[in-house]
Amino acid sequence: MDVELVKHSARDADVLFAARVSTKGEGSLADVDADPERSAGLVRYLMRDRHGSPFEHAVMTFYVSAPLFVFREFQRHRMASYNEESGRYREMRPVFYVPSRERNLQQVGKPGAYDFVPGTDEQHAVVTEATRETYLTAWRAYERMLEAGVAREVARIVLPLSLYSSMYVTVNARSLMNFLSLRTKREDSTFPSFPQREIEMVAEQMEREWAALMPVTHAAFDANGRVAP
Length: 229
What we know:
The structure is a single chain. The protein is of the alpha+beta class. It folds into 2 domains: 2-68 and 71-82 and 165-223, Gyrase A, domain 2; 96-158. It is 44% helix and 17% strand. It contains 8 helices and 6 strands; from the N terminus they run βααβαβββααβααα. The protein has helices at residues 12-24, 36-48, 68-74, 121-147, 152-155, 173-183, 197-213, 215-223; strands at residues 2-9, 59-67, 81-84, 106-110, 113-117, 164-172. A 4-stranded antiparallel β-sheet has the order 1-2-6-3. Strands 4-5 form a two-stranded antiparallel sheet. Helix 2 packs across helix 8, helix 6 (173-183) packs antiparallel against helix 7 (197-213) and helix 7 crosses helix 8 (215-223). The two termini are 28 Å apart. DUMP binds at residues 73-76, 84-88, 156, 183. Pathway: Pyrimidine metabolism; dTTP biosynthesis. InterPro entries: Thymidylate_synthase_ThyX, Thymidylate_synthase_ThyX_sf. The active site is at residue 183. Belongs to the thymidylate synthase ThyX family.
């Protein structure tokens, strides 16, 4: 899973600037740096008491490359602006997802309270062989239709959800926190989450980029049990 921060307008100061208009009216970004500890306290207060709108003024755009099934989970959140490459307008590339040896394969427990544990050597061999065979068959069928003059939007229907795609995702910090609360598994979370590992890998990379941009806000998010304001 590849994630790249493309551009941003995201600083802790953006949150403070937006929050203080409610009590001070128009101000300047320079004002928020005058008292760092007081500013950090305000961020913690906003997070704790769930005054969420100031966090919406910090915006990031990410480029994400991942399998289609990850994108379908991602876009269920309806919390960002998405633009994805189109199999109607361009020929897709033969890049498919094959789980690594480190990927857990066995589900233990029941929905809502389950975990995944390592698979056996035999299970990993089956997964690797089956996925590679399926991908090769699907790609040959795709190419055969294209060579016959079939439109790309029709030929793509044989391609599996494990095909890699790419998209731009533009999201504000408040929405990103909501996404992270659901798509990362952390023992210190107030509400437990059980994300599929592949989307969690994307979420972890997005979180690292965001934490570097807004360390005070990220620390407050963690301290608040990773509950989005």
